[in-house]
Design brief:
Helix content: 25-40%
Order of helices and strands: HHHEEEEEHEEH
Shape: globular
Distance between the termini: 35 Å
Strand order of the largest sheet: 1-2-3-4
Length: 166
């Protein structure tokens, strides 16, 4: 049996202020049928721009609908990275920790990875400076494309509704 939650409770979940027990209960039970659409409303209310959010990609990244049927990756602060099928990380500010000195800024001496074997890539939003994602990869490894959403299938086959337009 699913339980229905109001937007206030879902906003607390999004903001990370919902008590742990309640968050665990929400995440471990069957979801109410309209949870995704309610969460879209919560996310939409939390940003200052009017572009229609189609789905979240990460804590501060969304796929939004643009005029002409375009779908772009946009940050909480309104920065447009790229088309939704592209890898947004290629358009972000990136800082690479690839020396022992840079590793020691976040790891105690000798507890960080050896930079001949691993580097840490930090991806930042160019508007806010917020850290969006971190990758730990071997030097020279291609930038990881985490998620390429199939928005049409998600809406049409999973949600059983048309994809919202701009």
């Amino acid at each position: 049996m699913s339980v229905t939650y109001d937007k206030g409770t879902l906003k607390q979940l999004k903001d990370g202020v919902l008590p742990h027990e309640k968050a665990h209960q929400m995440q471990s039970k069957f979801k109410d049928a309209d949870r995704f659409m309610k969460m879209l409303e919560v996310w939409q209310d939390s940003v200052e721009w009017d572009d229609k959010i189609l789905m979240p990609l990460a804590e501060h990244l969304f796929v939004v609908a643009k005029p002409g049927g375009r779908r772009v990756v946009q940050s909480t602060w309104g920065h447009e990275y790229c088309e939704a099928h592209e890898n947004w990380k290629l358009y972000a500010k990136v800082f690479v920790r690839n020396t022992p000195e840079l590793m020691r800024e976040i790891f105690p001496d000798k507890l960080g990875a050896h930079t001949d074997w691993m580097q840490i890539r930090e991806y930042y939003d160019p508007v806010s400076g917020a850290l969006l994602e971190v990758e730990a990869v071997p030097p020279g490894y291609p930038i990881v494309h985490d998620f390429k959403p199939d928005i049409d299938t998600f809406y049409n086959e999973w949600l059983k509704m048309p994809v919202p337009e701009a």
